[in-house]
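User: Hi! Is it possible to get a structure for several chains at once, not just one? Here's what I have:
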Amino acid sequence: MNLNSLTQSNGEWLRANGPEADIVISSRIRLARNLSSFPFTNRSNAHQKTEIEQYLKSRLERIDYSPRLTYVNLATLSMLDRQLLVERQLVSRELANSEGPRGVAFAPNEILSVMINEEDHVRLQVIRSGFALDEAWQDADRLDDKLEEKVPYAFSEELGYLTACPTNVGTGLRASVMLHLPALVLIKQIEKVFRALQKINLAVRGLYGEGSRASGDFYQISNQVTLGKSETTIINDIRDVIPNIITYERQARETLTRENRQFVQDKVARAFGTLKSATMMTSEETMDLLSSVRLGVNLRLIDDININEVNELFIHTQPAHLQKILGKELDSEERNSERARFLRNRLREMDSMN
Amino acid sequence: MHLTEIVNGKKKEKHFCQECAEKQELLKQQELNLTAILQSVIGQHVGGQTDELSRLTCPSCGIKYMEFKAAGRCGCPHDYQVFREPLLPLLERIHRGVKHVGKVPPHALKHAALHTELRDLRQQLRTAVEREAYEEAARLRDLIRQKEHADEPE
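Assistant: Yes, the chains can be modeled jointly so their relative placement is included. Here is the combined structure:
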């Protein structure tokens, strides 16, 4: 498969057409599953990993599921292409950077992907635009059933789905919601939100999961507990708390526009101005500036660009996307100048269209 | 990326760009720390029993309890049975319970039935070979092969 075509569109989840999409970027469900008759990936040798990959790949190709999934062998893929899949959230950073036989099957609309030979033999994930955890769970549950029809999972009545890491055992479920919270960051209330979430055993992470920084004011909120609670309870625990955070962010946005309008307007205008004129731009700075622009669009402070276009810029300015779009490999410094050029051109185009 | 290093009471601040940080493996170190945290949690739970536990080995994948402790990852599904005793307190601490109450794989019974059937057939095959009943053995071998590949593509 030619992965270059991926950069011509956004994944379905990034299209900002889901519920509460001004604040909730996406909802994600991840299920960890393992084959009962093999050691976990970390203890399988190359031969076993090949067997696991072939076995799962042949089952995935034949399950009765539409749309049909595309399989990509990660072991033979270039680093740039693997990075591209990471940026599109189809593959975890861990799987992209690991070694040996491994792969990913995904749906053309990129809502659904199945990683093979990650920490667990199977990591099935569904990402939907906006606040749509229930729909994402239904999709994941359905595909999980289809796959299990053909594949015997490692499962114990007592401990549930058995996983390589004891932190995932039980449901093997990680439910997470990605939020854009620029106003709570600006009024310095974000830490308070985190503390409240940690108290109820929810984890807060940056854009690319474990250990990553919350660049661009994006925060991922997810469950930590996987054993002793049903899938529905785990999902409801998160689903119930998100509307409160949405309300806090909306209130913070209102407060800002009411009491500090000039300040916000200036921040948004400076961010937009910098993006339209800078000649060197790191991806960190791009994220931070685009975050301000995204806030500006949602507050109707700028109308030169729409949310969909901002979302597209977020992903197209990531290192692998940028190199794919420009059709050449670039070192970090070259990327910074090409990224700035790309942003100037795209923003000019968008400006003339809107 | 910023790093504050304290050596002999002297504070050194270092600033790195992403690339240099990766070169210096600083980011890798951060990931390792997560494993270290899990290890320490596991360590707290085994405490004094370590001697006895250190002899525990999974007959299925060959992982020793100490290896599990060091890596924070199990070697195969069977480990949950073999290391059950030290695992339960750990699971209780990580999670909100030690009993799965979620989804049950809908086809597990079918798989389990097939598993048992195959085990019985293999046993019969062994006996047939011992009895030198080769026609019977050939029939069983074909049956096993057919059942094993029942859900595979032609």
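The two ends of chain B are 55 Å apart (CA to CA). Residues 25-31 of chain B have pLDDT under 50 and may be disordered.

User: Great, thank you!
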